[in-house]
Design goal:
This protein is of the alpha+beta class. The protein folds into four domains: 156 residues, DNA Polymerase III, Chain A, domain 2, CATH 3.10.150; 114 residues, Roll (DNA Polymerase III, Chain A, domain 2); 76 residues, Orthogonal Bundle (Arc Repressor Mutant, subunit A); 72 residues, no CATH class. It is built from twelve helices and 24 strands. The strands form six sheets. It has an eight-stranded antiparallel sheet with strand order 9-5-6-7-18-17-16-12, with helices on both faces. It has a five-stranded mixed sheet with strand order 2-3-10-4-8. A four-stranded antiparallel sheet has the order 21-22-23-24. A hairpin with a 5-residue loop joins strand 6 and strand 7. The longest helix is centred in the N-terminal third of the chain and has 16 residues. About 4% of the residues have low confidence.
Length: 441
Amino acid sequence: MNAVQTYRYLQPSTLRAAGLDLQTSGGPAANPRFFSGFLTTPAAAAAGLLAVAEVARTRYHQPVSPASLDPVVTGSRERLRFESFSGCCGVYARMDVVPAGFDGEIAGHGTTNVDVNPPLREALARVGGIEPLHLAVGPDDLTVSTMEGAVVERKVPLPGRWMRGFAEVHVLTAGFEPRAEVPAAEATAFLRRLPGSSDRSVLWAVPAGRTLRLTSRPTPGAVCLAGAGRLAALRGLLRHARTLRVYGPAVRAGSPAVPSTWELDTGSLRLSLTLSPEPYRGFSGEGAALLALAGDEVIDDAELVGALLSWDPTIDVAALADATGLSDDRVRAALAQLGTAGRVGYDVADAGYFHRVMPHDAGRAERDNPRLVGARTLVEQGAVRRDGDHATVCSDDDEYRVRRLPDGNLTCTCRWWAKYRGQRGPCKHALAVSMLAEVTV
């Protein structure tokens, strides 16, 4: 389902002689200006912004006409972040401009959408040279109240899948570790050897000296590369990059396909693409955030932690634990809960969370998860009978057995678990057992 947001721009985004003028659609103030200054590597910044915008316009699985979706920008202390999802929600793109990438001051903070229109894309494609590029995120001398007649108004469907994707990606990537770092020259050669966009196979990249080699089977230390053509958006930044870093969860022989993050670092900015485990799978359906949404205690913890969030480049878990009196684990669980409302993201390069506020209904994340709604209903109906590490769940005139494994994960005898075997999050029966455990512990 789409949540139709009305984006209000004072004027189209443009590339002027004085620099890049990105128009925003809202935030802590109407049409705010987060930043005004120079980007120190203009060609690289233009290529990175084009990549984020291109991902937003692309549907990698079953390609169709480009979507018209505007990237999300967050301004905070020492960071500008531009984010988008592909039309199929299977690729998450983000460009992080770090302090070395700009010469100016981030005057405000907040999250909003930026208008990256066709004329601007054409202008960005022509950016070159070494002269600094001036960036103004939002107008600095106009306000909606005084320029109401000049507002450009258009309705753009903001898919609910984007919101669910943000909720899932930060939970998944929080479990990633760096797996490989490849110099720019070797990274260029590796990316050029990859299969084209029509290839949907699941490959695995294994560190091999200064480069990566591809294999068809997972091994310890390997990184999943599903649908290698989905990395095409990185190519425009290759000539500016210093290194390619690759992140992913731990795998072993026989592991199923898993998500991964591929990041180019220029020294002044980082462009990353996070790929879903398989080309046809969108992050919005992965179910990784369900457990974060399930508990009652974590909701109260999230309210407490959320009130203390600041716009620091990374969120200090230990400092929040000291301020709230919660354990580090409970703070991390609260951050996961906040992420389901778009208030928190995760940066694999910094190995830490960051603060943002999405222009979206915070309660929608729970309403859009039918498994969560079904699990709450089962608990309310008293449909769960616990027996030590096992439980029986009565649902739709059938009984299902839920068993807790030594690693703490739950298995179930239902069709959902038989089909996905935990790869798409817990089924509603296992989720109900988890909820009951939270209540009774």
